[in-house]
Design goal:
- Belongs to the ATPase gamma chain family.
- It is found in: Cell membrane; Membrane.
- Keywords: ATP synthesis, Cell membrane, CF(1), Hydrogen ion transport, Ion transport, Membrane, Transport.
- The chain folds into 2 domains: about 60 residues, Helix Hairpins, CATH 1.10.287; about 230 residues, ATP synthase, F1 complex, gamma subunit (Pyruvate Kinase, Chain: A, domain 1), CATH 3.40.1380.10.
- The longest helix is centred in the last third of the chain and has 78 residues.
- With about 300 residues, it is α/β, with parallel strands linked by helices.
- A 5-stranded mixed sheet has the order 3-2-1-4-5, sandwiched between helices.
- The radius of gyration is 29 Å and the shape is elongated.
- Helix 1 runs antiparallel to helix 5.
- The relative contact order is 0.19.
């Protein structure tokens, strides 16, 4: 019965693992709801902010903000990579990091200098191993409340100042775009220099009336401040959408792990019963053989 005992031990071990994965699935489901709500809340804010900025730029087309500086050709590129702090979320980080590293190597092969800002602990080690020049990093930001976003801007401000000071010519952000609970995709988008082609919505919707703004004391500083706020919002939106993708991916991964544990328990249980029946049959055969030997003796 030593084989049956080993099978019972394996069933108990798999059962404990199943308890853990099932609990993590339920936790991820609860967190996914909050993360999705936060991602949906920030979208209309960023879209409305862009419309305001676009209207201002349309009314003051002669204004040139430092965040709109076009430097051609762009030899120096900055990239903000948004990953998760924890694992157990399937291929979420792997797909994004593969895209980022492939693009970074492509830029470097073309003779372009690349500097990287990493948000999230999972991407830090991978980008270091890939040989990236990391200029800033931030961890533990996925669960920050909107009121604590200033803690994030310390790392995000580094590539922004690099662009304003002319040390990089373009700035990209790489993140996972949340589509629904079962669908998300890695994206790499340029956010600087700012241009209307980068946004998702036109400056004025059909049927809307563009109301001229009044500025005190002058429009230039107001436009520059709103442009900076818009870029910061784009970075924050990338983080909250990646957080929603993280919880969705973790819930899916833990559900698959729980289902696999259930299947393994069923197989081991069947194997245990089979082994036990074989042992009982063998013992009965030995008893019968012993009784026959006694009668014949």
């Amino acid at each position: 019965m030593s084989g049956a005992r080993e099978i019972r031990q394996r069933i108990a071990a798999v059962g404990k693992t199943r308890q853990i994965t099932s609990a993590m699935q339920r936790i991820a489901y609860i967190r996914m709801g909050r993360a999705q709500q936060r991602a949906r809340q920030v979208r209309p804010y960023s879209q409305s902010l862009f419309r305001i900025v676009a209207r201002m730029l349309e009314q003051h087309q002669d204004h040139r903000s430092p965040l709109m500086a076009q430097r051609v050709p762009a030899h120096r590129v900055g990239m903000i990579v948004v990953t998760t702090d924890k694992g157990l979320c399937g291929a979420l980080n792997t797909r994004l990091l593969h895209m980022c590293i492939t693009q970074m190597l492509s830029w470097q092969a073309a003779g372009r200098e690349v500097s990287v800002t990493v948000i999230g602990a999972r991407g830090l080690g991978a980008m270091r191993r890939a040989g990236a020049r990391i200029v800033a990093q931030a961890v533990g930001v996925a669960d920050l409340a909107p009121d604590d976003v200033t803690a994030l801007m310390g790392a995000a401000a580094v590539p922004l100042h690099q662009f304003i000071d002319g040390r990089i010519d373009e700035l990209f952000v790489a993140t996972n775009r949340f589509i629904n609970a079962l669908s998300f995709e890695p994206v790499l988008a340029r956010i600087l220099p700012f241009s209307r082609e980068l946004a998702e919505l036109p400056a004025v919707h059909a049927g809307e009336v563009a109301v001229p703004y009044l500025y005190e004391p002058e429009p230039g500083p107001v436009i520059d401040a709103l442009l900076l706020r818009y870029v910061e919002t784009v970075i924050y939106r990338a983080i909250v959408e990646n957080a929603a993708c993280e919880q969705s991916a973790r819930m899916t991964a833990m559900k698959a792990a729980t289902d696999n544990a259930d299947r393994m328990i069923d197989e081991l249980t069947h194997q245990y019963h089979k082994s036990r029946q074989e042992a009982i049959t063998r013992e009965l055969a030995e008893i019968v053989a012993g009784a026959d030997a006694l009668r014949s003796g």
